[in-house]
Amino acid sequence: MEDLTRDVVIVGAGAAGLTAANELKKAGLSVLVLESRDRVGGRLWTDVVDGAMLEIGGQWVSPDQEALIETIADLGLETYSRYREGESVYIGRDGALTRFTGEIFPVAPETEAEIVRLIGMLDALVAEVDPDRPWEHPDAEELDRVSFEAWLEEQTDDQEARDNIALFIAGAMLTKPAYAFSALQALLMAASAGSFSHLVDADYILDKRVVGGLQQVPLLLAERLGSDVLLGQPVNTIRRDADDAVTVITDNGLTVHARAVILAHAPVLYPWIEFDPPLPRLKQQLHQHISMGFVIKVHAVYERPFWRDAGLSGTAFSPYEISHEAYDNTNHGDQRGTLVGFVSDRNADDLFRVSADERKERILESLSHYFGPEAKSPLVYFESDWGAEEWTRGAYAASFDLGGLARYGADLRTPVGPIHFACSDMAGAGYQHVDGAIRMGRVAAAAIVEQVRA
Question: Which region holds residue 51: left if phi is over 0, alpha if psi is between -120 and 50, else beta?
């Protein structure tokens, strides 16, 4: 058993925890970051698989992500634009493939008119929503009682229009079926990106990547902390002492005494920690009403980016395909070509009911519907399955069930004495993204500095 003393303990060495630790250190407080994994980065993970560098976790940077952009600049990292020259492809309800440019999918004129109308309606609603306080919208409770799917059914009878609008929130972001979350949760997702139109615009939301991979952000933040980051230290107990200090204990017998602690990891992992005394009843109820989404991120590396020869950008969409979206994910300076595809919610469920070989075959078949038979024969194939990650258990982040956001959202970030909470799952701006994690790390650190100095 080893005993240490610090001003603040941070549980989780992802972007939120490492940002908070660096901010606290700048303020003159001593810190210790405890990470369960054998690496830093949390849901950011850049690795080499069969000779190919893959972004297994988060990877994109959009223009509105100011906190992330500031951090990238501060760390001296470089970015490059996602490849987007040429035409995108769309597969409709009838299975027909159409090449197109622009943001609106090539559908029948009446369906296009409905999609444009729905986007305008959602943009107007989103403009009324504060992403940090969506529960304060005057119609919050009403919007939180109806699923996004049911809300869309109220707005239009056009099935393809509904399917395409739902795709941008359900498949692409929350990675849950549109009947599983509320209209208010959908508005929060859009508000966190500035507007629903931003979610529709792949060139905006998936704008740039970091040369060498986005995991460099937490890696370089951890370097600044040196020996104050400990890996392989799952926390199992957090005890609040009589003087409102905390004692944090890990599976490996490390005990750390501190004035405050930040839980900087996915909230679905809170039940793995024993709190003494227990968290307040409201917090316990709250945590039972949030859950992770489910998505398979598919990486397929080819000898060359063959789709470019056909004048295609590598961008593809269809609510009716196993892989509902795909992009050119070729690394900076790489002669090979990489496609990344996404399989979410019920499609992901179905694919984990079959063998790994059949899953791969079905996914590559889906990619071939967009890009032709060459897509079936990658040099490297890899599936990012964050549901299998012991210290994440889903992707991309947690969201509330029906009614949960209006009922509990205001309590999500509220500290419990010296126990603070910070991760992308509870962000407003940047919700579910690295940008949100950095913002929440800054917020938690500022609150502790104020608390300590009071």
Answer: left
Q: What is the pLDDT of residue 453?
A: 78
Which tokens in the block code for residue 430? 């940047």
Whole-angstrom distance, CA of residue 111 vs CA of residue 90 = 14
Q: Is 331 helix (H, G, I), strand (E, B) or coil?
A: coil
pTM attached to this predicted model? 0.97
The reported pLDDT for the residue numbered 239 is: 98
Mark 150-186 as b/e (b = at least 16 C-beta within 10 Å). ebbeebbebebbbbbbbbbbbbbbbbbbbebbbbbbb
Whether the domain at 46-84+206-212+294-388 and the domain at 104-200 fall into the same CATH topology: no
Residue 270, both tokens: 């809170």
Angle at alpha carbon of residue 325, lines to 319 and 330, rounded to 5°: 170
Q: Using one digit for the tens of pLDDT, what is the confidence trace for 135-181?
A: 999 999 999 999 999 999 999 999 999 999 999 999 999 999 999 99
Q: Which CATH number fits domain 46-84+206-212+294-388: 3.90.660.10, 1.10.10.410, 3.40.50.300, 3.40.190.10?
A: 3.90.660.10
Beta strands per DSSP E along 63-155: 79-81, 87-91, 97-100
Q: How many CB atoms lie within 10 A of CB 139?
A: 13
Identity of residue 283: K
State yes or no: pLDDT of 1 exceeds 70: no
The residues facing 339 across adjacent strands are 300, 328
SS3 call for 30:
coil
pLDDT single digits (tens) 351-399: 999 999 999 999 999 999 999 999 999 999 999 999 999 999 999 999 9
* Nearest in space to 134 (alpha carbons), one of 394, 397, 412, 396: 412
d(CA 149, CA 168): 12
- pLDDT > 70 fraction of the chain, expressed in percent and rounded: 100
Alpha carbons 254 and 247: distance in angstroms, whole number: 10
Residue type, position 297, single letter = K
User: What is 2-42+215-279+416-453's CATH superfamily?
Assistant: FAD/NAD(P)-binding domain (3.50.50.60)
Residue 453 backbone dihedrals phi, psi, to 5 degrees: -90, -5
For the domain made up of 104-200, the CATH class stated in words is mainly alpha
Kindly give, in sequence order, each residue whose CB lies less than 8 Å from that of residue 290, ignoring residues fewer than 6 positions away. 267, 268, 398, 399, 400, 401, 404, 425
Q: Decide if 262 contacts 362 (C-beta within 8 A).
A: no
Domain ranges for the chain, please list them: 2-42+215-279+416-453, 46-84+206-212+294-388, 104-200
